[in-house]
Backbone:
């Protein structure tokens, strides 16, 4: 999502409404956008009420090597990743197919499958937040995590040649998607060995994610490899929160340059165009070509 809400300011200046519906009721077929995109409509869950679309990017050699399996990365807000017709800001996406193709062909990134999970519009806030805030509600991220780990990931594994081990499974997102990525990466550390946390909404519920990090980190036997970033044009509070999160990660055993990369992005703002510029370096850190 493009907006960056802060407590007491849900409609930040020059931004779109922070919890605007973004779920397209009839998503267009993305095949004419990129030949290796596959759209699955109306994925259903026993844990959450709303259906959601799922979009899958396949690497360049997928059909040429039918015996090969691939790492996989799951990314929230799937309608903002690939198709400019479904994105929150029309025409602005993360440009993942172009960037992943280029990085794979230049052998800086291992060929991988990327799964975009569409959000459900009005209920995005509820599903992407770990705890209920007394003013804003929310707090259904645990159920969203069960949808992801118990339903969607096995479903993807039945249909695509993904590697299912922790070391080859990533999770990512931005803003509230960054928050829920960190939360689920800690809660389901046995599932995710790679995390992409872009411009995270650390502020949610008085920064309760920092306390959760302190609680969970000692129980995780091996730190997931973690990309964390923030743009220097996202506001002082967002910058401060991301830097605080970086320090807290280091204090809990993440090693800069090894299991942790933190980047303060010069000129970076809180929108799809800015996150698009971070996709390739993020993939190069999390899925380097071997």
Residues:
């Amino acid at each position: 999502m493009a907006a960056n809400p802060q407590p007491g300011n849900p409609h930040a200046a020059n931004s779109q409404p922070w919890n605007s519906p973004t779920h397209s009721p009839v998503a267009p077929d993305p095949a004419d956008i990129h030949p290796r995109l596959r759209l699955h409509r109306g994925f259903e869950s026993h844990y959450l009420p709303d259906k959601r679309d799922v979009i899958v990017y396949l690497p360049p050699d997928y059909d040429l090597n039918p015996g090969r399996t691939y790492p996989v990365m799951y990314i929230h807000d799937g309608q903002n990743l690939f198709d400019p017709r479904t994105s929150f800001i029309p025409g602005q996406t993360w440009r993942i197919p172009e960037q992943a193709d280029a990085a794979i062909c230049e052998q800086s990134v291992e060929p991988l499958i990327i799964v975009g999970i569409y959000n459900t519009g009005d209920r995005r806030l509820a599903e992407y937040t770990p705890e209920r805030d007394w003013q804003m509600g929310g707090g259904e991220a645990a159920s969203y995590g069960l949808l992801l780990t118990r339903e969607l990931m096995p479903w993807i594994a039945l249909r695509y040649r993904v590697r299912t081990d922790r070391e080859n499974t990533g999770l990512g997102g931005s803003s509230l998607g960054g928050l829920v990525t960190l939360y689920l990466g800690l809660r389901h550390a046995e599932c995710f060995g790679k995390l992409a946390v872009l411009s995270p909404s650390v502020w949610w519920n008085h920064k309760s994610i920092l306390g959760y990090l302190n609680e969970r980190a000692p129980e995780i036997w091996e730190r997931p490899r973690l990309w964390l970033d923030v743009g220097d044009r996202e506001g002082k509070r967002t910058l401060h929160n991301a830097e605080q999160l970086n320090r807290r990660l280091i204090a809990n055993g993440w090693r800069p340059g090894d299991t942790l990369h933190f980047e303060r992005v010069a000129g970076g703002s809180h929108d799809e165009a800015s996150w698009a510029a971070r996709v390739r370096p993020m993939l190069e850190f999390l899925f380097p070509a071997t």
